[in-house]
Structures are given as structure tokens and as C-alpha cells.
Amino acid sequence: MHLVxxxxxxxxxxxxxxxxxxxxxxxxxxxxxxxxxAESVKVIERALAAGHRPRSALVLEKWLDELAPLLDPxxxxxxxxxxxxxxxxxxxxxxxxxxxxxxxPELPSVESLLAGARRVVVLEDIVDHTNVGAIFRCCAAxxxxxxxxxxxxxxxxxxxxxxxxxxxxxxxxxTKIAEWPGAGLELLNSLGFRVAAFGLRHDAIRLDEYAAPExxxxxxxxxxxxxxxxxxxxxxxVVVIPMAGGVDSLNVASAAGIAIWATRAGNPxxxxxxxx
Length: 276
What we know:
276 residues, alpha/beta, CATH 3.30.1330.30, Alpha/beta knot, 2 domains, seven-stranded parallel sheet
């Protein structure tokens, strides 16, 4: 790596790190530029361990000793400065000390991603990056084999998604499913998956009574409105998490964690509480 003390915050070479709080701009600029941002030493370490390649890094001087062993093997510029200077570039205080601009990996096809998979999660139009990151963390912790995201879903590699997931977006294989539900749902069926849509419908199966098949795709919908009616209509099953206390639903990340655990591979039958 090559250490570059920052003398001019308007240097064009720092464009990957500029105005990071402008979500709309970053949503367009990062995928188009073939990059994403990894924030914190831990997340950068996980990105590198997953085989992702860095483009450059932006580091608070006091964090350099901790980050240097990770980046030293790479022929990249590591821009170094004090907190106020870096804040003027990024738009926020870098409490986690380091950012790395990473080359965005090429996404696999759905067919290649799902070869041999048993548990798959589909994220339909979930717009909050925090929820996307939290669901990826659940998927990593609960041994989901792959995640599919629909075209309008928030980017799993957006900085906030990556940070909330604690870098598990690099651990769980994922790709985009282009036509959804339509041809995308039909493709899942053709690959041997039964599709369970989690939503509120009068004929939905209670989760604690749902016998999960060996190959299952669990579908979770956008915040607020939930799954599209067309998705629930096309799915093999509609499943609901039983609620109490006058609550009709949970945050989508919480619901996903519960549903994934209850239908995990190796537990393909109703939960014990219903068997007694």
C-alpha cells in the first residue's frame, strides 16, 4: 500500500468517499462505478477474507496501525488524515476509523447460486438498508444457503447494509432475481423449491403449524405494505407468524429471523410445542 497524506479534501482521487450521506446519489454512483464501501477494520477484514479486492482506503491516522497489516499486500493508495478533514469529505464523523472502496464482485446467476441449496431467502422490494443488513446477519447465523433480492430491493452492498450485517453480506451468497414474482418464482419451483410467502392473509398457515419441506424459499416483503398480493397468490404457501398483544406484524428483519429459525434445515416438521 502507498500512504497518501490528504492535503486537499477536493482532490478528485477522493471521489469514492465524497458525500456519503447523500443516499440517492450513492445508490446510483456506487453500482454504476463498480464499487461499494466497507466501513470499519472488522468489516474490511471480512471483505478481504471473502476475496474482494480493494481500490483504495480512507483512514484516520490513529487507526492506521490496526488497518495496515490488512492492506499492506495490496498496491493501493491509503489516504490518511485527521477527523475534521475526513468529515469534510465524507459528510459524517468516522467513529469506526476506516473506509475502504472495494471492487464490486460480479453476481452469479440464480441457477448457479442455488445449485445444492436447501434454504433460500427472497427479499421483495425491502427499501431500508438497515433491514437488509439485519436479515443478512440472520441468514448467516441461521445457515441460510443463499439470498435473492428483487430489482427494487435496497442494495446489500450499500455502506449501511454492510455495516449492520457486520460484514456477513460477504459471507452469505446472494444475487438478484430479475423477474419477480412471475418468471422468478416459476424458476424457483423448477429448481425444486417450495415457495413460502410470509404475509397477512385469512387462509395463511400458522408458522408453528407449518411443515417445512426439504428445499424451501422464504419470501419477505417491503416495509409497511408487505408482500405484493400477486406474490402471495403465486406462492405455494402463505405463512404467518402468530401474534399476541394486539400486534399484527413485526419488523421485517425480526420476522425473518423467527421464520428462518423455525423452518431451518433439519427441522422439517411443526415445532415441538405443537406436538405435545
